[in-house]
Amino acid sequence: MKSFMTNRILLITSILLLLKGVCFAAEQPDSNRIITNDILEQNAPAWLDSLLHLEMDTLALEIDSLLMKHPRDSLNLALPDTLPEVAPVDTLAIPLEPTSPAIRLIDQLGVVSRDSLQQLIQSGADLNAPDSSGVTPLLWAVQHDDLDLLAWLVDHQVDLTEPDDPHDSPFYLAEKKALTGNETAKQMVYRLRRAAPEPNQPLFDVAWYGYPGLISDQAQADFDDPFDKGFFKGNTPLMVAAYRGDQEVVQALIEQPQDLDRENPEGQTALMIAEAQGHTQIVEILRDAGARDYLYPADRALFEAAARGDVTQIETVLYSGGDLYATTVRGQNPLTAAVQAGRLQAARFLIQQGADYTLRDIHERTMLMLAAEQGNPDLIDLFYQRGLDPYDQDIDGKTALMIAAENGHVEAFQLLVKKGSDLYAKDVAGETAFFKAAKAGHLEIVDFYVKHGVDLNEPAQDGTTPLMAAAGAGHLQVVEHLLDNGAGVYLHDNEGKTPLMLAAKGGHYRVAERLIAAHASVLLADFHGRTAIMFAFANGNTRLIELLIRAGATINDRDAHGKTTLMYLAESGNMMFANALIRAGANTTDQDDHGTTALMIAARQGHVEFAEFLLNHGANVNRRREVTFYDEQGRRQVKGDRATALQWAVMARQPAMVQLLVDAGAILDSRNPYDETPLYRATAEGYEEITHILRQAGAY
Questions:
Q1: Of 71, 186, 359, 412, which residue is the least packed, with the fewest Cβ within 10 Å?
Q2: Which contacts (CB < 8 Å, 24+ apart) does range 554-559 have?
Q3: 381: CATH
Q4: Per-residue DSSP letter, 558
Q5: Is the model more confident about 217 or about 272?
Q6: Does any domain span residue 50?
Q7: In terms of domains, do 460 and 381 share one?
């Protein structure tokens, strides 16, 4: 810490001396510096250019970043032989300590040095202090999907108290990200919840993780007791399961004593939550169990008649009290139901009766967009004639034209073009209607854009081009058409993936063959060190693997995270190339940078034959997922979740794999960082067959 501050003061002093004509008035601390060029251009290293337009109150923070990202000897701190005379400057007048030393260090290192954080703790830094934006180190870890950092902070007893604003809550953000399928976020939720459990944690496990096996042990629990933190704060287990769409858990929960019509802080019941998420089967399960429908019977009948297109029944229901303006929790009215079902006559009748055709649903979709989704030109014309704007965008930035294009509705697309739609509008992901048509494989719409001179290589925000999107989805005709018209085969997305890598990832042999014929390189690697053949091994397409090998791909490499080609092959369990990799030098005991082995991957995927092959070639059945390393002070450190192949097989519901590993001598009472055995997880998740196998083998 002392050397850091010494370097910092030296760098501040050097910069201030190099910057001829610096103006720093104590009375005006926010005034800008006056910069001249002569000495600066000759002596300042390149990194100094970025500091030229900073104000003094932010200069110190940028200096922090330089010191964190560059060794001292690379910063070129040498001063010229002669310096211009400058007024004396008290460098300590510049604020030297950021609001939160911990968050500043984390943010600037990118890859966090645990040793540096340890030094901060020893020097008295507060790991719970937020930066100027209110972000704590723990929240930063969740924002950046840094599971190792989160685990480190939790192990060092960082404050896990729920903040008043849920959006500042690591629990809230981790759970929200996990609901999108983010696997790292799911592990973060697990770690956070084990470190700071709910008062009724077993019921949270039931609802969130889908552990119906735990319900039988909760006979005395209060199933109406809402959770007290995170994304589902104020929601009961049934509400959480309804949101997630877990029918098995919902069915198990409704058999327990509780109020099916209980409302959360937003006034929503489990039934309303299920309907808002589009889980229609769960809605029916809840209705059958006696949950109250938030719509009046006449209103529900009106929606159903509109969806059938039964104009006579619509008229009857309206006459008997059905509400033309009733809306569902998805923000839809009876007219919406008619449009989504493509019922032109019913839609016209409802509009004549006064239905609100300007209504947007919870996704901000207009009636015109819904008509485009149906591909119904008559409905499109109906709403266009009533003034709905084709330039309107939904919550994702999609226009009606984009929706028609991605669904391949050529006639609807052509009509919207004639109505003046913006051909080149982009949604929030940076995708145009052309991009969406290419990704979905709609050649006629792609050809329309090609003939109109579209930029074939314009990427979306993630760097994906239309060719990449088509290749990844396996649309051969679109790929050929784009290549024939000059689309770039060597371009890559923001992760470094090329069209060939994406084709290999999807297992699309003919697309890969066409790309190789267009001189796509099989040797390029993405920014994670993954080559096309690694993606092909993971996919397991034998013909595709052979194609890439014939084209010159190498077969025994590691990616940037230490994952070997044997590990990629374990993803697919393709036995044809297993012996070839062993002959090429692949080692069954290798671990990647996180401690994962090929056996663990095969166990998770359920590839019993492949796992048996690995065991026969020396794989360690009890190897834990952990990596030993030495920190900057020479101290031995261990990172990883310490899970074994058996624990992976249990979590993945692979009974045949569990039996194989047990027979191979897997330790039955191995424990993960949360002190859980394989038997505990199997019992909690209700895996009866796996529970039986483990008990038969002697687990308890």
A1: 71
A2: 554/523, 555/580, 555/581, 555/584, 556/581, 556/584, 556/585, 556/586, 557/529, 557/531, 558/529, 558/592, 559/525, 559/528, 559/529, 559/530, 559/531, 559/534
A3: 1.25.40.20
A4: B
A5: 272
A6: yes
A7: no
User: How many angstroms separate the CA atoms of 270 and 263, rounded?
Assistant: 8
Smallest Cα–Cα separation from 665: which of 599, 575, 606? 599
Q: What ranges in 420-495 are assigned the alpha helix state H? A: 433-440, 443-451, 466-473, 476-484
Residue 627: its H or E element = strand 627-630
Packing angle, helices 56-69 and 101-109, rounded to 10: 60
* Eight-state DSSP code of residue 638: E
CA distance 546 to 531: 14
Check residue 130 and give its pLDDT: 78
Question: Does one domain contain both 602 and 662?
Answer: yes
Q: How far is CA 687 from CA 171, 319, 599, 683, in A?
A: 27, 53, 22, 6
Same domain as 381, residue 470: no
pLDDT above 90: percentage of residues in the chain: 45
pLDDT attached to residue 155: 78
Same domain for 589 and 678? Answer: yes
CB 254 within 8 A of CB 286: yes
In whole angstroms, what is the distance from residue 459 CA to residue 491 CA? 10
Residue listed under structure tokens 């084990």: 194
Name the band, by pLDDT with cuts 50, 70 and 90, for residue 129. Answer: confident
Q: Are residues 478 and 595 in the same domain?
A: no
H or E stretch covering 630? strand 627-630
In the predicted structure, residue 656 carries a pLDDT above the cut 90: yes
Is there a contact between 101 and 120 (Cβ–Cβ < 8 Å)? yes
pLDDT at 378: 96
Domain boundary among 554, 586, 609: 554
Q: In whole angstroms, how large is the CA radius of gyration of the chain? A: 31
Rounded to whole angstroms, the Cα distance separating 679 from 380 reads: 57
**Range with the lowest mean pLDDT among 135-149, 290-304, 549-563?**
135-149
533 closest CA partner among 510, 487, 566, 490 = 566
User: How many C-beta atoms surround the C-beta of residue 399 within 10 A?
Assistant: 27
Please report whether residue 349 resides in a domain: no
Same structural domain, 693 and 591? yes
Torsion of CA 660, 666, 668, 670, to 10 degrees: -130
Distances (CA, A) of 207 to 213, 247, 288, 628, 675: 11, 11, 20, 35, 21
End-to-end, the C-alpha distance of the chain in Å comes to 50
pLDDT tops 80 at residue 259: yes
Token reading at 270: 């489990």
> Pick the residue with more confidence: 667 or 201?
667
Q: How many residues does the chain have?
A: 700
Q: What is the pLDDT of residue 566?
A: 93
Q: What is the pLDDT of residues 343-396, one digit of tens each?
A: 999 999 999 999 999 999 989 999 999 999 999 999 999 999 999 999 999 999
Q: Decide if 652 is inside a domain.
A: yes
Mean pLDDT (the chain) is: 81
Q: How far is 624 from 615, CA to CA, in rounded Å?
A: 15
Contact in structure between 472 and 505 (CB atoms under 8 Å): yes
Distance, CA of 98 to CA of 110 (rounded, Å): 17
Backbone angles phi, psi at 695, to 5 degrees: -65, -40
Structural domain that includes position 669: 578-700
- Which tokens is 434 given? 């052309």
Residue 145 lies in a domain: no
DSSP 8-state secondary structure symbol assigned to residue 393: -
pTM beyond cutoff 0.85: no
- What is the number of domains present in the chain? 4
